Amino acid sequence: MQANPAASVPTHVMWDESMLAYNFGQQHPMSPIRLDLTARLSADFGLFDRDNVSVVAPEVATDEQLQTVHDAEYVAAVHAVSANPDAPDESRGLGTEDDPAFAGMHEASARLAGGTLQAAEALLSSKAVHAVNFGGGMHHAARDKASGFCIYNDCALGIQRLLDGGVQRVLYVDVDAHHGDGTQNLFWNDPRVLTVSIHETGMSLFPGTGFANEIGGPDALGSAVNVAVPPRTGDAAWMRAFHAVVPQLAHAFKPEIIVSQHGCDNHARDILSSVRLSVDAQRQMMLDIAELAREVTDDRWIATGGGGYDIFNVVPRSWSHLVAIVSGQPVPLRAEVPQRWRDYVLERYGQTAPLLMNDDAQLWWRSWEVGYDPNDAVDRTVMATRKEVFPYHGLDPWFD
Fold first, then answer.
1. Which uninterrupted H or E stretch holds 301?
2. H/E element holding 55?
3. pTM of the predicted model as reported, rounded to 2 decimal places
4. Domain-located, residue 398
5. What's the whole-number average pLDDT of the chain?
6. Any idea where the Histone deacetylase domain is (predicted)?
7. I need a labelling partner for 264 at 20 to 30 A (CA). Which of 48, 140, 201, 277 fits?
8. Known catalytic residue at 139
9. Residue 117 above 50 pLDDT?
């Protein structure tokens, strides 16, 4: 049997139990339990013990590092609320219903950010070719404001570090159910960064942005790409949209590194979106991005987590698939969930965990090449996106 070359790619997994300190409280959907269960499931599959994998404990990002994308005044405000959570700063999104204040908020948030920064450093120094920070993906945080459970935007910080380190073109792919507004806006007028977000339309879901006509600033037209699918979009339509936009732009843009955000709140069981994907489709997009990295970036790839609020059934399975794929050896789609992990979930939380690593979905989609259907809502939004941005990349919106 021929060896899988991807299985030997040096991979950093950014993980340490200190990341569980990012905790908005028991009633908040962004529970740190999802990170703990992901790490435990990944460990039970032996993913952390692979010869090509280094598990790296993230360090707290410094204020200087954070200020490469965030205003100094905002970082100071996070410090202040972190030290005194009884004095929130709602004008900066700190101490709101979405982002409740808690003691140690700065350090906890800066540690998640530090994970993606260290991933970028590892690629720049060639210590790693792949890296994954499933505790990251905080894509809503803006330059001067917290938003949508996100305090510091680790995705943007990682991208900025790559740019500062000499990388000329970065492709950011965001498949979270929610629009990757923070990351898009931070690079709105930077032609070196192509941000692509596939998400439920802002007509029905937070943050209310991410439409096809959001295409970047005057110096970077075509650098922001948005595919806003309707509620209840399932596997076949979502995957059709992904494959009608992402590979074409990746090949045209020719990035040196891909940074991807894999929020799994697009799953049918998730409480915070109306998208209807399976773990099978989430895993397939990971494989597709891995293939794009091999084809266009000399295999350089940083992956992050993001949203995901079904913390027992979906998140650990999806992100364990992510760790496995980033490290070069996918967990088989119909693999059994390790009994040890299922026993832990039952004994610790009283929850019955899934038996298999997939949802047994019929994962098939209609290729864009077979034709555009104007009566199909997803086809209409895909065509709107292609018309807006494809010409800026030398692509024909009807045929490429």
1. strand 301-304
2. strand 53-56
3. 0.97
4. no
5. 97
6. 28-325
7. 48
8. no
9. yes
